[in-house]
Specification:
Blueprint (H helix, E strand, L loop, with lengths): L3 H17 L3 H10 L5 H22 L2 H8 L11 H4 L7 H6 L1 H4 L8 E5 L7 E5 L1 H17 L8 E5 L8 H13 L2 E5 L8 H11 L3 E5 H14 L8 E5 L5 H11 L3 E7 L3 E6 L6 E3 L4 E6 L11 E7 L10 E10 L11 E8 L4 E2 L5 E2 L3 H6 L5 E10 L2 E8 L5 H15 L4 E6 L14 E3 L2
Helix pairs in contact: 2-8, 11-12
Length: 448
Amino acid sequence: MAIYPSFLRSCLMPAYEAVKGKDLLKHLGAYEQRLSWTKEQLLAHQWQELQKLLQHAYHNTQYYPRVWAEAGIKDPRDIGSMRDFEALPIVTKNDIKQHYAEFVSSKHPNNIRKSTGGSTGQPFHFELDLNSNTRREAVMWRGYGWLGAGLGQKTLYLWGADLGQPSRFKTIKNALYHGFYNRKMLNSFAMTQGNKQEYVDDINAYKPTAMVSYVNPLYELARYINDQGIKVWRPSTILTGAEPLHDFQREEIEKAFKTPVYNTFGCREFMLMAADCQEQRNLHMNIDHLVIETIDSQGQVVTETSGDLLVTDLYNYGMPLIRYVNGDRATINHQACSCGNPLPIMSSIDGRKLDIIKTPSGGSIPGELFPHLFKEFVGISRFQVVQQQLEQVTLKIVANEQFSEADKTAISDEINKYSNGELMLNFELVDDIPLTASGKHRVTICEV
């Protein structure tokens, strides 16, 4: 049994938090304790915290009282139930960009400012207060903890790195910081076809208990390991995040590392929103920290079917995001999980709206089609589907020697079946498909 996690939590972290003035351990303990609650207790807690947030947003921001008044809400006490809450106007990224200052709480002048490139590559800025930032870290450690990658576990991260060349001081500071948390960072941005063995060597040398990684870099590394028949260290658990984990990717990674792979789901604005359980691999949503809804194209709340995600952070008082459209799609399931975790289930992550390919007649092709289609062709190492005009689609393909004209024909036939032959398909063979600035591989890009 590893000693360091207990030592970190009982000795080092209390001293560190006393100096920094943080309450991560207090919040982590409270979040962990709630896993023993019933679903009804969790929902009651969520509603209580939501009422506090609504009062705060109404009295301390300019945006919400104005917009809610336009919707007929003159007093936040009029929002007396979740049904009333579900009738509130949604908030989009464009709303925040246009009225940024109106979202910021007048009581929180010292917020932390963060940004994300988002799926469109356009920078998006938001803020959160210090308490909210600490709480989201605690929620992350709870989810990672039930999957065996908790606070202080020896963990290797195949993750993004700071852009540019860090100073010597920052390099030393980062090394000490990650050493304190007992983790090693490998830069996924720097992985190429020619240096994958170096990553395998680093994993074998470090011998981590757990691994945490972006999906696509780990999948590409797993393919290399399997293709070359290389022996690699077997961690006890592997967690993936930052992009959808497809079944064929999970299978490839588990084949390489011979250990279970678990999915996590989050975004920059809210950090960890849901994490798999070990028993059933169901994504459990952090409803004691967030309100997570799905809506249909008419704006009505739906369950048991795919919808656009709306997220409310119960504790970001610095810049409240209430019924915020984060751009993802998912399916929420109210059935209880046999694992015993009382947090409700997100039964599937259905991609982002921009991942849908459109047809001239008004139809659409789900982005999920393409990973399932292209995985059948051994001649394709990587692909990307790009739609810049409504009538045509470019299929960028990193091909190997097994790719053939017959493959092109088969791919065209399958896509034509779903598009009714309305799309002109342009095959473009490329040497590489760069990851986004945040380290993700965009399977489909729709710009129409």
